[in-house]
Predict the structure of 4-hydroxythreonine-4-phosphate dehydrogenase.
Amino acid sequence: MQNRLMPLALTMGDPAGIGPELARRAWRALQDSDRVFFWIGDPALLGEDIPYRIIQHPAEAAACFSEAMPVQRVTCPEPVRAGQPSSGNASAVIESIEQAVQHALSGAAGAVVTNPIAKHVLAAAGFPHPGHTEFLAALCGTSGQEVMMLACPELKVTLTSIHVSLKQAVETLSAERIMMVSRLTASALRRDFGISEPRLAIAGLNPHAGENGMMGDEEIRIIRPAVLALQEEGINALGPMPPDTLFSAAARPRYDAAICLYHDQGLIPVKTLDMAGGVNITLGLPIIRTSPDHGTAFDIAVGPGETGEADISSLLSALGMAHDMACQRSASDAVNG
Ligand SMILES: NC(=O)C1=CN([C@@H]2O[C@H](COP(=O)(O)OP(=O)(O)OC[C@H]3O[C@@H](n4cnc5c(N)ncnc54)[C@H](O)[C@@H]3O)[C@@H](O)[C@H]2O)C=CC1
Ligand SMILES: NCC(=O)COP(=O)(O)O
């Protein structure tokens, strides 16, 4: 049960986005709870209304959490203007993520929770990764195994492709990829969510799941063979399921996770059902990582000490889910050795 005691590492995200405001409001909401976290960011972004304590190591977080927000300092090289991102601050954004991962890999943090980054802002500074998901895998030495899951209480989805064009998602779809994502999903449902016999629904790609090849043949060539091979392995997988009805209220209780074949096939239903409660989770890492399901929201970002329109629910869900996953993983590992 070691992870139950470890604080969560919360990254800064883009300093010009809503991340800094969300972090301080999340601390206010959680300061009397067991969801202890420390924020890795620039304290100049917090304003004077929030008590914070600079810490040198995650082990110091729990002692001060009820009184002050624990902060591990990372300094932005350039002045920050809310809503006006600058690639001049990319180094601090990246350093925050790197430190969080190091703490999780060493066991000093129970999980990494990331605040949103703007991919194009980091790309302009030469950052080679399309998003957190791929960067985290590179930091953990598991590139190629990363899988994006989006989860809300009503629905969990995982994706066979992440930050690529729709065209590329279709061109690179393979039975091997569907099987890899399905195996990782089933394993995470058992280990991190306590679902002992996970049921997977594999989405089709085309209208009516291809209608026997009339509307596309990926279901016949790729998806159906993958489902049969998964069943041979003992994984409870069904499909290809017609995507237009897969997310209906009647269908959702019949599976524990839907395997989706491109980014928006999975993210649209989750965000439509529950934008506030949705959480982005990375599978395939040796560490636990969650994130709110929204982005940087530059259009509503406010400066230090100000309170704007940002809804903190998704960050609270991400912190709560990271905590619960860490506890569940610890319990599962204790049972399974
Ligand atoms: N995990 C991450 O780091 C993510 C980063 N992004 C990045 O965010 C940037 C902006 O992306 P968009 O597509 O505009 O998505 P967005 O989620 O930042 O904003 C879309 C709309 O939702 C609103 N919104 C978002 N979060 C909100 C919250 N907590 N409370 C109230 N309203 C909220 C925004 O004000 C905006 O009108 C992009 O550069 C993208 O790369 C997007 C998704 C996830
Ligand atoms: N649409 C989800 C998203 O862009 C988040 O990506 P990541 O930064 O968590 O990899």
Residues 131-133, 267, 280, 291 surround LD2JLWAY (ligand 2) (CB under 6 Å). The longest strand covers residues 147-152. Residues 1-144+287-337 form a domain with the Isopropylmalate Dehydrogenase fold (CATH 3.40.718.10). The chain has two domains: 1-144+287-337, 147-283.
